[in-house]
Write a structure and sequence with these properties.
heteropentamer; A alpha/beta (324); B alpha/beta (146); C alpha/beta (663); D alpha+beta (337); E mainly alpha (128); A: 324 residues; alpha/beta; 6-stranded mixed sheet; globular; B: 146 residues; Rossmann fold; 4 strands
């Protein structure tokens, strides 16, 4: 498929559709692929395999002002939602992007292998659902599904919500999982248990801002937490409160716009399940204002900038119970 | 938590200028009392209330935050309180999800004519917050007076 | 460091009795930035204002904080004071230590402490204030009056006489409203039609007045000076220009099913009808729901008989869009539905009527041509019981009535009783009352005349029940003065039903963003000082839509509303509210979310060349139309980067207040 | 050489913790970081890499420096006394141990940092040799021996036994009561580790030319734009890095006064070294270049060739978009050695 | 007897606020037992408010009330006179430490004119 993709992109470039492509390039290892913008000459570096996890759509924002003509973008089914959302918010101009919807059967999370104690990884052979991992300390076999990125376990399906053409087959890797499982589990806890859960998680935060900077919804020119004039500028959490503040506000600012792409949790160096914050907003929105998927279409008006006269009152939160 | 008889809650009430602030004025001119722990901040409309302000209040030592605005349908700006309603619902839900007692936050619609309701709401909210005690989960230790 | 002055007002003893004003002034003097702090008996007095002005000049103050009554009371006053001393009026903040402190707290220590905290918050805010200058917006020199009753007519006439165009939108086919249905008016007993119809005609003929009857306001956008209204002119199915009002069609119409609204449904009318003889405009209208042509496609008798060729079965609703500088609400009232009053047998007997029905039964143009006859059998009643406060002053539940006093019932009941006794001296008249309320010029004299001159039997007490006993109505009530239960076999019972705002008022209130109370009466901008203005700028209130009132009061309020409208329309431009939203172009993401939540369409996006330390180039940025923005702040919270902020209520100002309060 | 059964580790630590804090790799919420050890802690000496490095023990992410108290219009200043208490930091790997030398150069030279110095003085550093380096490790390039780290005492884990060797008096005091042991097992493990280390994919990076003499050449290298293209501008690499030592000093208004504190800063951030006129590194390319120029050129040229990188591999493992110093060295360093 | 029963006692038992009364007399206007009573429903409310509890407790009027709730149903201000009357009766019962009558006394009191409702309510009220 990688070969087919490169050939097609080269053909498109020859036709003059675009001069550059946003995709992934090879890293030092087989797994550390890196988002890249490649010209026709660099096209051989393009990689598309089981390790192309990063959501590329946000990179298009910085490309927009530089563009003359179009750029080709490789967009996985899940990334297509982010792409649409960015178009809705006028951060990306649909007309300036030639979208190749690339097939995806789930991406592998090397950290999950490491968490199983498989370290010193030098190569992986993929054979259907079976992965053979070669390491400095011997070979191991694992089931592919078990080491997919968390976001792939709640896959939004194989459909590309936007594309100019599609290349490659996709597969829904969610296996029927309920993405709100953990949200519900947390909701079922007592307030004290929830408090302790989040304190445990958020106290790990080192405020590296990776979650924010990778997030396609967090696309502010200048974040409130970086802006000395907002009064809430903050570089490191000097108190527990500032950890809460940053993550609550971040989740709130992307509420209704978050496509649940899962990048925040993927990139967190401390493994904080940040997506559970965003997903809580999604669960509430679905529950209180009707099901809504950000980025499904270009031009949607999201629920947090919308209303109906019959909306529930904020007291619903108290009434749902489980507060003490 | 140790019971401190001296402890008085800090309560911030954000009131929209057109209905609830006027309702508070009416409560005042009707001599309807409510605890002095409640301090009012005037905002033009309930939709002006940024979640940042609520968190800021908790950071700085507030024990409860209440937003009062015009009744839905009566917003001076026609739709402001509808947006506020959604925002606050979602924010309060998130705070609760993080283990913050949802009784510490409240939204109440109080019209300019509802002086008694304003006073009753503040009495009730202050009572609830007094019962809940000091906000320790969402405060900033640095802001504690020492 | 700024130089802030603090002025603590005693408000006589209103504040000083509960708040130690000296302690407040002293405490606030030690706040960083405060260079002057004092107290004074009445800051709003001329001497108080002079003190402020002198201090601003002497100390070269950058901002002032007044600890006084609510800013809703005197903010404007003190802003003017500041301006007079050369300080930008928006460098003034008020700490509300009267309504929020002295009036509600009894303990002096507690009240003083709270006043200090509120003072600190105001100081913290004023330090973040920036001088603001208001923009201007043009005024469309035309007024819209919603409702064509006496209130609307009077307002329209007064505004039109001042030389401005007025459109009256009336939902029914004629103007005139409730007053047109009345027989005589208290306390002079002159005929309502005789005094009203000349005004109706005048309104119709006035060159500045445009009548839009059988029309409803569909939507209103814009703001004071520049409203835009969409008005639906419902199809009359009669060409208004061609119709001469001859009435032939109304006589020939074979359908007699429509209840005559003008006569409170006491009789019927044709499907094509003219509401009443003096209707303005005197044009027929077809009630499609009762018209045989519309139901079966046949008939068409009216069309055949109309020599003017005015019948137009294919007429469509028309949408009219016009600009207005001011809007007057004069939506009036209706009596409440008496059918909830089973105890008075309103549903069991036709002879139990409401006062407005009784009014029609007494009226020469009414169903009985002015002869008082029982609706059930057309016989003369010989004993009539009037029951007051039916549904008024009722706090038990909303279905049973209204908590307020309807104000007019005492007087019209006295009028009815008097008129009956005058016309039919053989008829006994009893009035059950809780209180008789007659504050008004010549009102009590009028009521006493009913008792002394006409011998009306006023019984202090209420009727507990009315039962139908054959042709009689058995009325059981209590006489609280003789302390006995009375039983009267009456021929008619008249219920002085409460009045309530017209049901269309609620939707109009929402459309205009004009606030209403729990009873759906429109709220005035100030109960005493601005009684004819809605809190929403450019919206004025005329008549009962604001609260129960009688005709003279309605007319005077209508005139007052008109003078406010004239005052507004006489200006060429309005000085706006400078507390509007503003987008920081460097921070703006161009995401358009603010544009979506703006209720006024005040935000647009443009591609713009932007230069800043971190960005240079063309980008999509939000631009706020300051004349259109009303300063609600919805956009500011929608904006995740805080590029959008609200002048006068900026993020930093509010957070400074939060900090000061929570400190 | 002393030894201790891993089963008795907690017991030993309890003895130490009675007198002073013990900081060790602790697992909490699924992540291993240095933290204060308590008998309830889940100690993870086996973890190759903690998420954050050991530098926190001496240079915490946030540290209060002074307080200003406001009473009305009066302001009083209260300095924080940098007096630290004795503590033991346990389980430091060779790379992190080397990072202390690098940090010492920064904080203990003029201007001398009293906070850092006090902590260094009061610390007993117990290192732990690596048994299982992984593909991201490249410490050997900087002359670090993962099998024989320094510190006040050194530990090795062989099977279920912890071997300890005191290197200084402080270390001696810590281990003196333990059982004596033969060092054969340690030697065997060291040989194995060194053998693996030599075979690691990045064992032979070419660092030729990364010095002050080639400053302008490296600075102007055309590769920077490509190298930094995917950089998100997050601070992950700097915050997990054991040698990144930049901090910002900020004031926090508590309502009753002001706390002046320092907190880690990252040269990857757009507001790093922000000045009144703006920033002198306006794009991510420049910020990215700054980080690696500092580690590979500026620092060694001021410190006798000592690189400000210890090859711990954290940035390789943690960069969200797989950018890292190895890619930089390779792109700028020419051919393999 | 009854010297120590106060307005507050009656209000606490009944949960009624007599100050809401606007003295319209509709309760008395609707009362079917009006003529049997020495004090009428509106007077009950007034007397309780005035603290004339003794008089009420000694009056036979309190036993004439049928508890038909017409007054309560009709009252425009939600004053609920019937509940006040009930409370006064209860106060009497509590004072006596016994019932006004026992169920055995009822048959002897029955006559043709006594409404069925009175019997039912008497049973309900007086049965221990």
């Amino acid at each position: 498929m990688q070969r087919e993709l490169i050939d097609r992109i080269r053909a498109l470039m020859d036709e003059g559709v675009a001069t550059r492509v946003l995709g992934w390039k090879k890293g030092e290892f087989f797994y550390d692929t890196e988002p890249a913008i490649l010209t026709a000459e660099q096209l051989d570096q393009l990689v598309y395999d089981s390790f192309c996890g990063p959501n590329l759509s946000k990179y298009l924002i910085q490309e927009m002002p530089k563009l003359e003509g179009k750029i080709i973008a490789l967009i996985k089914p899940c990334d297509s939602y982010s792409f649409n959302q960015l178009c809705t918010e006028h951060r990306v101009d649909r007309e300036k992007v030639y979208v190749i919807g690339v097939g995806c059967k789930g991406k592998i999370d090397v950290d999950k292998l490491r968490a199983r104690g498989i370290t010193g990884i030098t190569a992986i052979d993929e054979d259907g659902d079976t992965l053979t991992v070669h390491t400095l300390y011997g070979d191991e076999t694992v089931n592919r599904h078990e080491v997919l990125l968390n976001k792939c376990l709640t896959c939004k399906g194989k459909e590309h919500r936007v594309f100019d053409e599609q290349i490659g087959e996709s597969e829904d890797t969610s296996a029927g999982a309920d993405r709100f499982d953990m949200v519900k589990k947390l909701e079922a806890m007592t307030a004290q248990e929830r408090f302790e859960f989040w304190r445990g998680e958020l106290s790990k935060c080192i405020r590296c801002n990776a979650c924010r900077n990778v997030c396609p919804a967090c696309s502010c020119v200048k974040c409130v937490f970086d802006n000395p004039n907002t009064g809430v500028q903050n570089k490191a959490a000097a108190d527990d409160f500032e950890e809460n503040m940053f993550h609550i506000i971040r989740a709130f600012h992307v509420a209704g716009r978050c496509t649940d792409c899962g990048e925040c949790s993927r990139v967190c160096p401390q493994g904080i399940p940040l997506h559970l914050l965003n997903r809580k907003f999604i669960a509430d929105i679905d529950d209180l204002y009707g099901e809504y998927q950000a980025g499904e279409e270009i031009g949607q008006r999201h629920p947090v900038i919308n209303y109906t006269q019959e909306d529930c009152e904020p007291s619903v939160v108290r009434e749902r119970g489980n507060q003490a | 938590m140790s019971v401190n008889t001296e402890w008085k809650p800090k309560i911030v009430a954000f009131c929209c200028n057109w209905c609830s602030y006027a309702g508070a004025d009416l409560a005042g001119s009707s001599r309807l009392s409510y605890p002095a722990d409640v301090k009012i901040i005037r905002i033009p409309c309930s939709c002006r209330l940024n979640p940042l302000f609520i968190l800021r209040a908790f950071q700085r030592g507030a024990d409860g935050v209440i937003l009062c605005g015009c009744h839905p349908g009566d917003c001076h700006y026609s739709t402001g309180n509808y947006y506020a309603r959604r925002r606050m619902t979602l924010l309060f839900s998130m705070l609760s999800y993080l283990g913050i007692d949802s009784r510490r936050t409240r939204v109440e619609w109080v019209s300019a004519a509802e002086g008694p309701k304003f006073a009753a709401t503040m009495n009730d909210f202050a009572k609830t917050i007094t019962e809940l005690g000091e906000n320790v989960k969402l405060g900033d230790l640095r802001c504690k007076e020492n | 460091m700024q130089k802030i002055g603090v002025f603590v007002c005693w408000c006589g003893s209103n504040i000083a009795a509960t708040v130690d004003v000296k302690a407040v002034a002293n405490a606030l003097r030690s706040e960083p930035g405060v260079v002057f702090s004092t107290e004074y008996q009445y800051m709003c007095s001329e001497n108080g204002q002079n003190l402020i002005k002198d201090t601003i000049r002497d100390y070269k103050l950058d901002g002032i904080v007044i600890c006084s009554c609510s800013p809703r009371m005197h903010e404007a006053t003190f802003r003017k004071t500041a301006l007079a001393a050369g300080l930008n009026p928006y460098m003034v903040e008020i700490a509300n230590i009267r309504e929020q402190v002295s009036w509600i707290h009894k303990d002096m220590t507690e009240a003083t402490d709270k006043a200090i905290v509120l003072g600190r918050a105001a100081i913290a805010k004023v330090k973040k204030n920036a001088p603001l200058t208001a923009g201007t917006s043009p005024v469309t020199k035309r007024a819209l009056v919603i409702g064509g009753g006496i209130a609307g007519i009077q307002t329209a006439l007064d505004v039109a006489d001042a030389g401005y165009e007025v459109d009256i939108v009336e939902k029914s086919p004629t103007i005139g409203g409730r007053m047109a249905q009345l027989d005589k008016t208290f306390p002079t007993l002159d005929c309502a039609a005789c005094i009203l119809t000349p005004k109706m005609v005048e309104a119709n003929q006035h060159e500045n007045i445009n009548l839009l009857t059988y029309s409803e306001v569909e939507s209103v956008s814009g703001f004071v000076g520049s409203f835009k209204a969409k008005i639906r002119k419902k199809a009359r199915f009669v060409d208004e220009v061609k119709c001469t009002g001859c009435g032939v069609c109304t006589e020939k119409c074979p359908s007699r099913k429509g209840l005559n609204e003008f006569n409170m449904g006491l009789n019927t009318r044709g499907a094509v009808y003219i509401p009443f003889a003096q209707a303005v405009p005197n044009k027929a209208v077809i009630d499609a729901s009762n018209c045989i042509h519309f139901r079966t496609g046949k008939c068409g008798i009216c069309e055949k008989n109309c020599s003017a060729g005015a019948i137009k079965f294919d007429q469509q609703d028309e949408i009219i869009e016009r600009d207005y500088g001011a809007i007057v609400v004069a939506t009036g009232f209706k009596p409440i539905d008496a059918s909830a009053f089973d105890e008075y047998a309103y549903n069991q007997s036709k002879d139990v009527v409401t006062s407005l029905e009784f009014e029609r039964l007494m009226n020469a143009a009414g169903p009985t041509k002015g002869t008082l006859l029982r609706p059930s059998d057309g016989e003369h009643p010989h004993e009539i019981v009037f029951i007051q406060c039916v549904g008024s002053r009722c706090s038990r539940d909303a279905s049973k009535g209204k908590e307020y006093c309807s104000k007019i019932c005492c007087m019209y009941t006295a009028k009815h009783a008097m008129l009956v006794r005058e016309k039919y001296p053989d008829t006994k008249v009893h009035v059950f009352y809780i209180d008789v309320r007659t504050p008004g010029k010549n009102f009590d004299e009028f009521y006493r005349r009913a008792v002394e001159q006409y011998g009306v039997d006023y019984i202090k007490g209420m009727v507990g029940k009315v039962t139908v006993e054959g042709k009689k109505l058995r009325v059981q009530g209590s006489d609280l003065i003789s302390n006995e239960q009375v039983h009267i076999d009456a021929d008619m019972v008249v219920l002085a039903t409460a009045i309530e705002p017209d049901p269309t008022a609620r939707s109009i209130g929402t459309m205009l963003t004009a606030s209403m109370d729990t009873n759906d009466f429109f709220t005035e901008a100030h109960p005493k000082l601005r009684p004819v203005e809605s809190p929403t700028a450019g919206i004025f209130l005329s008549g009962v839509c604001q609260g129960p009132k009688d005709i003279p009061e309605t007319v005077s309020q209508a005139g007052a509303a008109a003078s406010k409208v004239i005052g507004l329309l006489s200006k060429n431009e309005l000085v706006g509210n400078p507390c509007v939203a503003h987008a920081n172009e460097l921070l703006c993401n161009g995401c358009s979310q603010c544009e979506r939540v703006c209720p006024y369409g005040a935000i647009t996006y443009v591609e713009k060349e932007v230069r800043g330390p971190e960005f240079r180039g063309t980008k999509r940025v939000a631009v706020v139309n300051e004349a259109v923005c009303q300063g609600c702040g919805a956009c500011t919270v929608t904006c995740p980067s805080t590029a959008m902020d609200l002048k006068g209520f900026s993020n930093n100002q509010i957070m400074a207040e939060v900090d000061a309060i929570c400190r | 050489m002393k030894k201790l059964s891993l089963n008795s580790l907690n017991q030993w630590l309890e003895g130490i913790a009675g007198e002073r804090r013990v900081i060790a790799p602790i697992e909490a919420a699924d992540q291993v970081n240095y933290g204060v050890w308590t008998p309830d802690s889940k100690i993870r000496l086996d973890a190759l890499r903690t998420v954050k490095s050991a530098k926190d023990a001496f240079f915490p992410q946030v540290e209060n420096m002074m307080n200003f108290r406001a009473e009305g219009k009066n302001l009083s200043v209260e300095m924080i006394d940098p007096k630290a208490e004795d503590f033991v930091i346990l389980g430091v790997k060779a790379c992190d141990a080397r990072s202390f030398d690098i940090l010492d150069r920064v904080f203990l030279s003029d201007p001398y940092d009293p906070f850092y110095a006090a902590r260094r003085e009061h610390a007993t550093v117990v290192t732990l040799a690596c048994g299982r380096p992984d593909e991201n490790c490249f410490c050997v390039n900087f002359g670090i021996d993962p099998a024989d780290p320094k510190g006040d005492a050194t530990m090795w884990i062989v099977d279920d036994t912890l071997y300890l060797r005191a290197n200084t008096e402080k270390g001696e005091a810590l281990v003196k009561d333990l059982e004596d042991a033969d060092d054969a097992a340690v030697k065997a493990q060291q040989a194995k580790t060194r053998e693996v280390a030599e075979k690691l994919p990045f064992a032979r990076l070419n660092l030729k030319g990364f010095d002050g003499d080639h400053l302008m050449e490296k600075f102007n290298d055309p590769h920077w734009a490509e190298l930094s293209r995917a950089c998100l501008g997050c601070g992950t690499c700097t915050f997990v890095c054991p040698t990144c030592q930049c901090y910002d000093i900020r004031d926090f208004d508590t309502g009753h006064g002001v706390q002046r504190y320092r907190c880690w800063d990252s040269c990857m951030y757009s507001d790093f070294t922000l000045m009144a006129h703006g920033t002198n590194r306006p794009t991510q390319v420049e910020r990215f270049r700054q980080r690696f120029m500092h580690k590979l050129i500026y620092f060694p040229s001021n410190n006798e060739g000592m690189y400000s990188c210890v090859g711990c591999g954290r940035c390789l493992a943690k960069c969200p978009q797989n950018l890292n110093i190895v890619k930089v060295i390779k792109a700028l360093g020419g051919d393999e050695a | 007897m009854a010297a120590n029963v106060t307005t507050e006692d009656i209000l606490r038992i009944s949960g009624v606020n007599p100050r809401k009364c606007m003295k319209c007399g509709k309760c008395s206007g609707t009362c079917p037992a009006y003529d049997e009573m020495e004090y009428h429903p509106h007077q009950f409310v007034y007397m309780v408010e005035r603290g004339q509890i003794d008089k009420l407790m000694q009056s036979k009027s309190i036993y004439r009330c049928l508890t038909c709730f017409a007054c309560l149903e009709r009252c425009p201000r939600n004053v609920e006179p019937a509940k006040l009357i009930e409370a006064v009766r209860l106060a009497v019962i509590r004072q006596q430490g016994m019932n006004h009558m026992t169920e055995n006394d009822i048959p002897a009191l029955l006559d043709d004119k006594l409404p069925q409702q009175a019997i039912v309510s008497a049973m309900r009220k007086y049965k221990k």
